[in-house]
Amino acid sequence: MKYYEKYTEDRTCEHCGVIFRAYIYNIKRGWGRYCSTSCSKKGNTNRTGQTFTKEQRERISKTLKGQYSSGKLISPFAKMPVQYGENAPNWRGGATLKGSGIRMSFKYKKWRYAVLERDGYRCVVCGVNDGKLQADHIKSFSKFPELRFDIANGRTLCIPCHRKTENYGARSNNYKPNKNSLPSTPPNLKTSAT
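User: That's the sequence. What structure does it adopt?
Assistant: Structure tokens below.
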């Protein structure tokens, strides 16, 4: 038995009577009734392949033109002008550009590697040293710009532990220091500002 024979079966075209092979999963969907696209168009009783008279085409055209011109067929979002930069409704004074520029700077990379080196390339919460490690700001990057490059304000976390922190991602906008938050450094490592 060939591989494809296991998944196909013989069918007879409903239009021309030719025997052909159709996939079983297509037959279950109600397909596999015709041997080709041309037989499908000729054999189907629905509107596929139907030709309209000239009057019908003009009437359909007139109706669609009226609906497009009145705006019924156009999405309200398509009518809205595209807004960029300062004209955009979510504009925050270029904050994203400033933050991403700082994160791409040499000074930030140097801070990140210093934090990872200080913590011995291990997550300070669970101790994992394989996988992707991230240098996390204990006090929010955006709320405390003066502490952005302070090594004492950094800690090494794996991705799952980083996602559990209070100031991860959008939660940093509501940052409130909590005494139950994750420790800044592991208990056996010293904090040094280099």
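The radius of gyration is 32 Å.
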